[in-house]
């Protein structure tokens, strides 16, 4: 019985198994250094990703001038980039399972480099939109592949590294306006233009645009330098990724064939669908608040433009700072715990925003808390789902598409409703509704993910109890058999004693009878 209880248990259906790694496992110090070097290169690529996404905002007016359009008529380039990002997420999800990860990321970053170099030379709005679509496709591939590769490198220990990866993205988005200001000088941001600036065409029409030339030298060379610096940075990172591909390609194919193991949750598809909705509401609320808080503060609260710009900056500042702090929190807190804390913070702050929407002090404090609460949700969600089911390329692409759709749909819907109901704080209602949705979805996901494990543990406990009971019943039967054998032996011994007593009694009687006969004869 002791040997049975000490035997190792069979792994549960959803318990953790060895991770599939896209590069060689660190069996020695060299392998560990290679893994850390690969992680640093991934961080660098996501820093460039943040720069690429955020550089368009500060240079939007210059791009519109370059193609002789006003800002309002050029806003569809964001739609083109969003559709490209969706397409890139789908393509990346398919290719990341069949291609070498380093080759895929290197090609996507090289395509991003080409796009960055060509954007300042576009002289027509149609060509600029097409270039933005291609640009968005390469960014979508990079986003999907980077998340999958960081999970493949670190597995269940990847929560801090995933937080650091997304912190690098936020850091790049923070540095892009500073880089644009250094390159372009103290130009006015597109967000602060007056209504007339949005509808009047650009005054600086170039001869290239008037003649229908597709490519030409930009009107302002500082625009070219802003994009060229980021493009050169992306090119250097892509070269390093190609070098890693040449070093690890043969090892990766062998490991994929021999050491690929994965786990799949019982409700795998349901969990992915719920995570799709979770990221849809989360990313949509994040982009919506960051995009509309400036106009909300000026029109609804009555703040000055400088104060509204500061409110917008404090949202993204606390967002980036807490995403950096989340790297250290992830080393001591589980991803589920961080999601719960983030949900509580976002729900509380958005509720205060709705209740005290006219109070400037509450607006500043609640905006800071809201930005901090939103920081760690996305990387924590990816780390959390990886604990229960292995995330491959198609799975990662699925929830990245959910995030991209939320980024597209929710801000557009809020813009429509805000136009119909200008007196209502529609932006704050959207934030509160998204916080409630994520707060409800996560417990449902947690229940689906952990219920098979709890059932398996109960079954294991029952089987252990049954084994223990069977073992104890076997001992009782053995004792009963021994008692029966002892009783039979004692009965046999009793019978022998009784027979011996009868024999002795008969012999005594015979002896006494013989003695009486002899004495009578003598008389």
From TrEMBL:
| Biased amino acid composition, Acidic residues | 477-494
Per the record, membrane topology reads: Multi-pass membrane protein
Q: Which domain of life is it from?
A: Eukaryota
Record's keyword annotation contains rRNA processing: no
Location in or out of the cell:
Membrane
Q: Main localisation, per the record?
A: membrane
Annotated segments matching region Disordered: 1-27, 455-494
In the record, the note on similarity to other proteins reads: Belongs to the major facilitator superfamily.
Q: Which PANTHER family match?
A: SODIUM-DEPENDENT GLUCOSE TRANSPORTER 1
Name the UniProt record assigns to this protein = Major facilitator superfamily domain containing 4B
Q: Which organism is it from?
A: Aotus nancymaae
Q: What is the lineage of its organism?
A: Eukaryota, Metazoa, Chordata, Craniata, Vertebrata
């Amino acid at each position: 019985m002791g040997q049975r209880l000490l035997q190792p248990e069979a792994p549960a259906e959803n318990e953790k198994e060895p991770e599939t790694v896209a590069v060689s496992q660190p069996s020695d110090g060299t392998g560990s250094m290679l893994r850390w070097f690969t992680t640093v290169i991934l961080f660098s690529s996501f820093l460039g990703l943040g720069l690429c996404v955020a550089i368009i905002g500060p240079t939007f007016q210059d791009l519109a001038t370059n193609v002789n359009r006003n800002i309002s008529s050029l806003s569809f380039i964001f739609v083109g980039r969003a559709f490209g990002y969706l397409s890139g997420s789908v393509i990346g999800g398919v290719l990341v399972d069949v291609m070498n990860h380093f080759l895929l990321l290197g090609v996507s970053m090289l395509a991003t480099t080409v796009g960055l170099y060509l954007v300042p030379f576009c002289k027509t709005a149609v060509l600029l939109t097409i270039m933005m679509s291609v640009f968005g496709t390469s960014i979508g591939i990079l986003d999907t592949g980077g998340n999958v590769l960081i999970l493949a490198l670190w597995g269940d220990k990847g929560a801090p590294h995933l937080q650091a990866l997304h912190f690098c993205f936020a850091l790049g988005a923070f540095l892009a306006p500073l880089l644009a200001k250094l390159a372009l000088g103290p130009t006015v941001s597109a967000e602060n233009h007056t209504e007339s600036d949005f509808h009047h065409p650009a005054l600086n029409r170039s001869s290239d645009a008037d003649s229908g030339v597709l490519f030409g030298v930009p009107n302002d060379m500082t625009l070219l330098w802003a994009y060229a610096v980021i493009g050169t940075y992306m090119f250097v990172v892509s070269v390093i990724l190609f070098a890693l591909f040449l070093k690890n390609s043969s090892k990766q194919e062998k490991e994929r064939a021999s050491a690929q193991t994965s786990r799949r949750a019982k409700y795998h598809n349901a969990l992915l669908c719920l995570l799709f909705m979770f990221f849809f509401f989360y990313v949509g609320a994040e982009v919506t608040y960051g995009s509309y808080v400036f106009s909300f503060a000026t029109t609804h609260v009555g703040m000055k433009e400088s104060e509204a710009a500061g409110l917008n900056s404090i949202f993204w500042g606390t967002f980036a700072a807490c995403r950096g702090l989340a790297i250290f929190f992830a080393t001591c807190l589980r991803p589920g715990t961080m999601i719960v804390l983030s949900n509580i913070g976002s729900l509380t702050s958005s509720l205060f925003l709705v209740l005290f929407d006219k109070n400037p002090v509450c607006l500043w404090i609640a905006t800071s808390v809201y930005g901090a609460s939103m920081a760690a949700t996305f990387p924590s969600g990816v780390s959390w789902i990886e604990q229960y089911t292995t995330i491959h390329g198609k799975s990662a692409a699925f929830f990245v598409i959910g995030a991209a759709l939320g980024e597209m749909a929710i801000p557009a819907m809020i813009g429509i409703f805000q136009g119909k109901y200008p007196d209502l704080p529609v932006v704050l209602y959207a934030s509160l509704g998204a916080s409630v949705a994520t707060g409800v979805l996560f417990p449902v996901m947690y229940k689906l993910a952990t219920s098979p494990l709890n059932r398996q543990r109960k079954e294991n406990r029952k089987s252990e109890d049954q084994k223990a009971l069977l073992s104890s019943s076997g001992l009782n039967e053995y004792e009963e058999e021994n008692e029966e054998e002892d009783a039979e032996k004692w009965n046999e011994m009793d019978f022998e004693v009784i027979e011996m007593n009868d024999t002795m009694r008969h012999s005594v009687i015979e002896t006494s009878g013989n003695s009486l006969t002899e004495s009578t004869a003598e008389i």
